[in-house]
Design goal:
The protein is an alpha+beta fold and 237 residues long. The protein contains 9 helices and 8 strands.
Length: 237
C-alpha cells in the first residue's frame, strides 16, 4: 500500500483491484475484506471502530464537514486508488448538518448525507426509504418526478431564500421552455411526444398541469377534440 500526502488531499493506492463483488457503485453497501483474519485481529485489538465500516465512516466524515466524498474513480483492475480531498467545498451545508444534529437530536448517517449532497448538487434522485425519512424531517422537498431540493428551512437558515426560489422555479420554467421549443421545432405534438421530450421526468398529472398553465398564458392551444388521441398541442399564433 502506498500513501501520498499533498497540501489539500491524501491519496492511498493499494495493489490489486476491488475484492470480488465490490465496485465503485456499491462500495457503501458491500463489505468484503481482502484479508478477513487481519481485519478481525485489528478489530479485536481496538484499532478499528467497527469491522467493515471504514468506507461508510469516510463518507460520513467527509460530507458532514462540507468536503467532497471519497473518490475511487481512478481505480482499475490492477489497483484501488482512494483520494480524500481536505478542502471544504460547502461550509454552509456542513454547518446545517451540525444544526440538524443539535436541534433535532438526529445525527445523519452516511447514506443520508450522500443523498443530501446529491440533492444539493442538483442531481436526479430515486425515491427510497431514505428520501421518505428526509422528507419527514423537513430536510428536503419534492418538486417533480425524481426531483428534490433542500427544504425552504435550509435556505432560510443560511439566509439564501432567493436560492430556494431559484431552485424550485428552475425546473418548472425549464420544462415549459422545452415544451415551447419542441412545439416550435415540430409545429405540433401529442402529449406522449412531449413526455418523451422531457425525458419522462414528469408524470401525466404534472405534464397536464404545465400544459394547462401554458394554455392559460395564451402560449399554446389544443388542436382537436378534448381528450382526443389524434389531437395535438400547438403554439398559439
Amino acid at each position: 500500500m502506498f500513501i501520498f500526502q499533498y497540501p489539500s488531499k491524501i491519496c492511498v493506492r493499494s495493489p490489486g483491484g476491488f475484492p470480488e463483488g465490490v465496485t465503485i457503485e456499491n462500495i457503501i453497501d458491500a463489505s468484503t475484506p481482502r484479508n478477513k483474519l487481519i481485519g478481525e485481529t485489528l478489530a479485536r485489538c481496538g484499532f478499528v471502530e467497527h469491522f467493515g465500516n471504514g468506507v461508510n465512516l469516510m463518507y460520513k466524515n467527509q460530507l458532514s464537514l462540507g468536503k467532497l466524498p471519497p473518490n475511487y474513480s481512478k481505480s482499475d483492475d490492477t489497483q484501488v486508488t482512494l483520494e480524500l480531498n481536505g478542502k471544504i467545498q460547502d461550509l454552509e451545508f456542513a454547518k446545517y448538518v451540525l444544526v440538524v444534529a443539535e436541534q433535532r437530536g438526529k445525527k445523519l448517517n452516511d447514506k443520508e448525507l450522500i443523498l443530501l449532497n446529491k440533492i444539493n448538487n442538483n442531481e436526479k434522485i430515486t425515491a427510497t426509504q431514505i428520501t421518505d425519512n428526509l422528507l419527514e424531517l423537513d430536510l428536503i422537498e419534492k418538486i417533480g418526478y425524481g426531483k428534490y431540493i433542500l427544504s425552504k428551512k435550509y435556505y432560510s437558515d443560511i439566509d439564501k431564500k432567493w436560492k430556494y426560489t431559484q431552485r424550485k422555479g428552475l425546473s418548472k420554467n425549464k420544462n415549459k421552455s422545452l415544451i415551447l421549443q419542441h412545439l416550435e421545432d415540430f409545429i405540433g405534438a401529442k402529449k406522449r411526444e412531449l413526455m418523451g421530450a422531457l425525458k419522462y421526468e414528469l408524470n401525466d398529472r404534472q405534464l397536464n398541469k404545465l400544459l394547462e398553465e401554458l394554455k392559460t398564458e395564451g402560449k399554446i392551444y389544443f388542436d382537436g377534440k378534448e381528450r382526443s388521441k389524434t389531437g395535438v398541442w400547438k403554439l398559439s399564433k
